[in-house]
Q: What sequence folds into this?
């Protein structure tokens, strides 16, 4: 069996999805997602210029050797661009492998450990009241877990996750902000004064059952993060995400000494080497890698297995940055993983997105039900894809009030 052709498509409804299609001499094809949010042209170039020329003629069934060839063989290993491109190749090879076996991918991982995977939605609002409305909106849809973010009185912008409609999906559909980032202001003191109390009011209003998650988005210094984590303990969060930037993994030790709040980290990680210390030292409770950014199913399965040894559960990244192909790869891992925790879910279930990526995967009552179609269970309509082209976008830049550049 041989790979005969490979094509990359960039574009999509409200997002620049980077989609890889690998053709074989047996008519079976594989699909993968290489979308690197707001840097989409770069993994596309990495695929077209380096990986695809070396894929043609290879036997797609040897997914392990192909992964090693592109990882070790690159000399310059890791990094988001190379790993997103490799992630798409690996996903497509597993898609082919499972289609050859005529099985849904999860059967090749070890079958189902659960019928459906728990999802969390993003509840947001410019202020606490509108956040409460947004939480109601998701509870009415059956969600039992929500990430909660809201505007902070006196802070011009919160910098992340706030949409006046209370439905953060919308902001991503329309926000092709261009190549020049918009700038936002961050004020740690205001956040530290306001947010613990706001989280407690949410807990008191909605009661003990609702799973509440909160994302600090890398904004705090280690000491501040320890103080914040300690102060939100009575809220009984499901998790506190990215309290500090993930580069300094030592920083988590201080937080751990002061708080038992469950910690989730890893959405910017590209490999097992980025998570190893955090997992082995049991400094986190949830690992947030994404199958695209971390180089595909092959390495992410290894991360999940390492995490299982250390009581760390999965909580894969699921921002709308990922196409339904990455979300499907994660859904297969989610129904299998013995240490599954939760899945972030915002993929845009618009008619346009469903037309571009047809599938039988189903979301109902805050749970993801996996498709039993062979492979990843997601197709790609090339005719639909002709409607879209690349649109430049950028993450915002965040500054402190005095102008100092801060972490988005
Ligand atoms: C966020 C992301 O989903 C999350 O937890 O941290 O939305 C993040 O801002 C984007 O994925 C950045 O590309
Ligand atoms: Mg996050």
A:
């Amino acid at each position: 069996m041989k790979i005969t052709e490979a094509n990359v498509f960039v574009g999509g409804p409200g997002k620049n999805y980077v989609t890889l299609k690998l053709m074989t001499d047996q008519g079976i094809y594989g699909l993968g997602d290489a979308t690197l949010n707001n840097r989409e042209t770069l993994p596309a170039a990495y695929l077209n210029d380096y990986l695809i020329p070396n894929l043609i003629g290879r036997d797609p069934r040897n997914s392990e050797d192909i992964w090693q060839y592109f990882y070790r063989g690159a000399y310059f290993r890791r990094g988001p661009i190379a790993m997103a491109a490799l992630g798409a190749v690996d996903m497509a090879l597993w898609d082919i492998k499972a289609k050859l076996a005529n099985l849904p991918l999860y059967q090749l991982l070890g079958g189902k450990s659960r019928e459906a995977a728990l999802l969390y939605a993003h509840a947001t609002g410019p202020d606490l009241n509108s956040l409460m409305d947004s939480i109601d909106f998701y509870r009415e849809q059956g969600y039992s877990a929500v990430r909660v973010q809201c505007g902070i009185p006196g802070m011009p912008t919160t910098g992340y996750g706030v949409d006046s409609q209370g439905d953060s999906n919308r902001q991503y559909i329309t926000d092709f902000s261009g190549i020049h980032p918009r700038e936002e202001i961050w004020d740690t003191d205001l956040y530290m004064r306001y947010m613990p109390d706001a989280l407690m009011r949410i807990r008191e209003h909605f009661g003990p059952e609702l799973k509440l998650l909160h994302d600090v988005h890398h904004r705090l210094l280690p000491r501040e993060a320890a103080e914040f984590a300690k102060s939100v303990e009575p809220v009984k969060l499901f998790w506190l995400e990215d309290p500090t930037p993930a580069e300094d993994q030592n920083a988590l030790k201080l937080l751990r000494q002061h708080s038992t709040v469950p910690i989730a980290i890893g959405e910017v990680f590209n490999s097992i080497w980025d998570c190893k210390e955090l997992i082995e030292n049991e400094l986190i409770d949830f690992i947030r890698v994404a199958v695209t950014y971390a180089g595909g199913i092959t390495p992410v399965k290894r991360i999940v297995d390492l995490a299982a040894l250390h009581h760390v559960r999965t909580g894969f990244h699921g921002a709308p940055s990922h196409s339904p192909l990455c979300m499907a790869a994660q859904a297969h891992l989610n129904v299998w993983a013995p240490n599954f925790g939760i899945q972030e879910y915002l993929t845009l279930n618009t008619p346009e997105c469903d037309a571009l990526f047809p599938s039988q995967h189903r979301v109902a009552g805050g749970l993801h039900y996996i498709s039993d179609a062979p492979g990843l269970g997601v197709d790609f309509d090339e005719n639909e894809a002709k409607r879209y082209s690349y649109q430049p976008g950028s993450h915002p830049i965040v500054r402190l009030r005095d102008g100092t550049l801060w972490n988005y």
Observations:
- Residues 37, 160, 215, 217, 267, 319, 321, 344 surround D-mannonic acid (ligand 1) (CB under 6 Å).
- Residues 233 and 261 are 6 Å apart (CA to CA).
- The domain at 3-104 is CATH 3.30.390.10 (Enolase-like; domain 1).
- Residues 163-174 have pLDDT under 50 and may be disordered.
